[in-house]
Amino acid sequence: MPIQMTRRAVIAVTTAAALLSSFAAPALAQDKVKLRLSTPASETDQRSVALAEVFAPAVAEFIDYEPHYNASLVAQGSELEAIASGDLEMSIASAQELATFFPEFSIFTAGYVLKDAAHQVAVFNDPLMDPFKQKVEDELGVKLLTVMYLGRRQLNLRFSQEEKNVQTPADLAGVNLRMPGTDAWQFLGQALGANPTPMAFAEIYTALSTGSVDGQDNPLPTDRDAKFYEVTKQIALTSHLVDQNYIAFSKEIWDGMTPEQQATLQKALDDAAESGRQQQLALEEELVQFFKDQGLDVYEPDLEAFRTHVQEQYLSSDISDSWPEGTLEKINALGG
Fold first, then answer.
1. 295 and 170: one domain?
2. How far apart are the first and last CA of the chain?
3. 269 Cβ partners below 8 Å, 6+ apart?
4. What are the 10-residue block averages of pLDDT along the chain, 336 residues in total?
């Protein structure tokens, strides 16, 4: 992968420069640390709110928390490189982003691998994640400290259930489904049985209203916030991806803290992640009725048919070649 090698080369140089400069830095344990977060999320996003309301107060004694929203500090997709070069302290990183550096992370972007929010947490805290975390730390100088829940992605179509009753992947044949533009997202759309169509998020509403695409997939809170219910007629609760983010943290900053500060910071991040997770889960439950009240058909298809088909698509492709042997089985076992 040429892009991957180019990024690694850049990171190797910038990381070395950052390490050299660190010898002249004062001991962080004695100083209040400025912690800049860069995220493409908005200030009202549940992840942003949880960090501001739960994390920041818990570490205020030794951390000066400075969040930057809407990718206003660092361009989306460049945050990990910025941490590696010493130009950023903290970000909210996706598995899709990490997979561009480390292909084995694609296992966490695959459909129906993570079953729900609890499974997501169990996997992150299990020893099976240790080599994943260690590689990111060794090669990027980035620590993955906790996992945040974005929500379960659902299918949202312009057709009513009477017009298109989606029970199995075969029912999505010929459906032009908007998916984000990366290869990982496009493969997921194909694995679901649809014709994946790459499109920027900002273009979805108009495309749905004009029929340029037949549907899109997102967690229910996103569907509501973007008002997709105004231009669609059904939501099939496929829950095909339990979307997640990791808190990515500068190893250099972490290593400069005392063990007590590290423990306090870790607990504060875990507490923030749990707060955001519970808020998002509650909102997802409430929104099922909200969409029904808006006149949409909301129903659960044959999930086992979807899960079996989608996982077969991944396992028969070269995407799974990068997955460490036995890891999928371990993940499945943690899901009960």
1. yes
2. 36
3. 55, 145, 146, 247
4. 47 48 44 92 88 98 95 90 96 91 94 94 97 97 97 97 98 96 88 94 93 96 91 97 96 97 98 96 95 98 96 92 94 88
How far apart are the C-alpha atoms of 270 and 257, rounded to whole Å?
Answer: 18
Q: For residue 258, is it within any domain? A: yes
| Alpha-carbon distance values, 45 to 50, 130, 131, 195, 222 (Å) | 9, 29, 30, 30, 10
CA distance 54 to 65: 12
CA distance 149 to 221: 12
What domain count does the chain have?
Answer: 2
What's 206's domain CATH number? 3.40.190.170
**What ranges make up the beta strands (E) of 55-183?**
63-68, 90-94, 142-157, 176-179
303-315 helix and 183-191 helix, angle to the nearest 10 degrees: 130
Per the CB < 8 A criterion, the answer to whether 236 and 157 are in contact is yes
pTM: 0.81
DSSP state of 32: P
What are the residues whose beta carbons fall under 8 Å from the beta carbon of 282, sequence distance 6 or more? none
* Rounded distance between C-alpha atoms, residue 331 and residue 20, angstroms: 39
Report which of 141, 146, 23, 145 is spatially closest to residue 87, judged by C-alpha positions: 141
Cβ contact 317:110 at 8 Å: no
Whether residue 301 sits in one domain with residue 193? yes
216 and 231 together in one domain: yes
Its domain, for residue 301, covers 153-242+286-322
In whole angstroms, give the CA distance from residue 92 to residue 272. Answer: 13
